[in-house]
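Deliverable D5.2: sample structural annotation.
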Amino acid sequence: MKGVLTPKSVAIIGASNDETKLGGMLVKNMINAGFKGKLYPINPKGGEIQGLKAYTSVAEIGEPVELAVFAVKNTLVADEVRKLGEAKVPYAAILTAGFKEESAAGAELEKELIKVAKEAGVQFLGPNCFGVMNPGAGVNATFAHLLPPVGNISIFSQSGAVGSSIIDWAIFNGMGIANFVTFGNKADLDEADIIHDIMEDPQTKVLGMYCEGITNGEKFVREIQNTKVKKPIVIFKSGRTQAGSAAASSHTGSLAGSDAVNNVIFDKLNIYRAHDLDDMFDALSVFSSCGPMEKDGIAIITNAGGLGVMSADAAFEAPNVYAVKFSEKTIEEIKVRVPTVAGLTNPIDVRGDAKPEYFKEVIDIVTRDPEVGGLVIMGSPLDTADLESVARIIVDMKDDIPVPTVVCFAGGVKCDRANAIFKAGKMPTYPTPDRAVHALSVLRGYTKNLDKAATPMEVPDVKGYETAQKVLAKAKAEGRDSLTESEGKEIFAAYGVPTPGEALVNSADDAAAACDKIGYPVVMKIVSPDIKHKTDVGGVVVGVKDADEAKAAYTKIMDSCTKNVPGANIVGVSIQQMVSGQEVILSMIRDPQFGPVISFGLGGIYVEILGEISQAHAPMTEEQLDRMIKSTKAYKLMSGARGLPEADVDAMKDCIRRIVTIALENPEIHELEINPVIVGLKGKGCWAVDALVTLVKE
């Protein structure tokens, strides 16, 4: 994708001398950016455009072109792409709007564009994108007239407006940009296609992404996992709420996806998810300026007690850092070298009238404390404080500070002058103590996750695929989008998922006989592809103790279900051995973007009452499996809390491994739920006592 990121030759399709028009803006922006390659304005009239020779078509150029940038009407785009194919132009950025984001007619134009581009062998960004930018290569193929300085932050943005805000922020804060890529409607190229090149780019230290939906989720995961070079990724993913999701769909035609699933994926890939643009900028700033943070402990230096208290509170609440208790050696050295210090605990209060050199001394001392992994420097614009001199001293010594360092000079005019010095010196600067501490917490969290073990999940030695495919094929042949409970359990059995003893009956007398054979107590359930939630329609009777109760239960179930779901296809009544233990829920849903997601938590009615489940994306590592189970209240109950007997956690893990295998081997399954799984005492196993399986709709 170097032809997109660092093109040596660019053609502007629809170039113009009128700089108020898009085609004119693009030519002007490329010239002003200092593009060192060959720039070819394309206009049917030919002639000269903004001092450059203009060509009537790409074919007229007669030389290779790496990137074509579009500024023509939406109805002309497909034909121009066809011409690119004839001229062997590999890449295009289509800034033109008026496609699926706008109307049904536009959606048809986009379908035609995709078809033509595929036939022509042209890969493209957009349509409806903001363009691409690479200040180091002199590329500004965007609407933006201002070019940020060269730096180490690469940006992906689905939205042109948000991308423009990011560029403006970078310029305002003196933050340099390595690459800037926008995707618009993502009709062809998306984040997954370019992320490998960004990770391999030596100029890029951190990638920031704004997106409304990740189109090819499974490829996105695969590309990040397979890249050899690991770099921080910060994502601001909008569409968290139902309203936001609807807005995303109408804006760019993309699916926002399940927000819970997005969190699972980002956690798996060690991606920091920003909650808003400020959070995104804060994270990009610390990753851009600082190296890894190897220890949890932070030191805080301030010239005002109040700011110190605020930062200490923030450290207490932050998930990945804490304010260290300094060693006696550190405290004694401060006493000797800076005797005027007001407070010797953490935060260190150097006093409002402290000489700028005192900051230097204290920084040198505390950053050598064995527990300190990061440093927060606070400043208040007191009349006695010379913040500008302090800022100069800190910037001068920043390369010698051995730990990641962030600054918060909180105030207005006086602080702004000092903060300008910090920004010029490429130090991460924040307006409030909590944001400064949070930035270090984000950095530490990323660093810790880099070191996490990644043991491939154990794959059970089972051969259930053929059985599963037969069951699924039968359901599809009958036009069903779900399996019966017995069919679901047939698949479970093929993959070695344990189930209680059971039988399917079609009369009260058969029910009594089957119960006698299985042994009491039993549970009896309706079997019908048309009834998914059996309890709601009177389709379940629990604790049947003898033959008479079995007959009565059969009659009750049949009467209730035929009354409440008239016309339902009733296969019979299932009789199951009752087992005892901890009830948990285990499920899989196939996310349309990312594929199988496994959920685990307290089962039975508690999953609805408490709403507490943990999730992991399949395939997962053994560590991710362990984390998914241990992060739940269910695990606390199963592990013997408050004197409770320990449950068979190992059997539960094995059950999850088998469900993961089912999901990965059978993409026809959309959703699978076992509620509950009964987990027996330690060493006694577990049982899937229910099975809800739905199929992917074709």
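Annotation notes: The chain is about 40% helix and 20% strand. Residues 243-257 have pLDDT under 50 and may be disordered.
The annotation will be released with the project's public dataset once the embargo ends.
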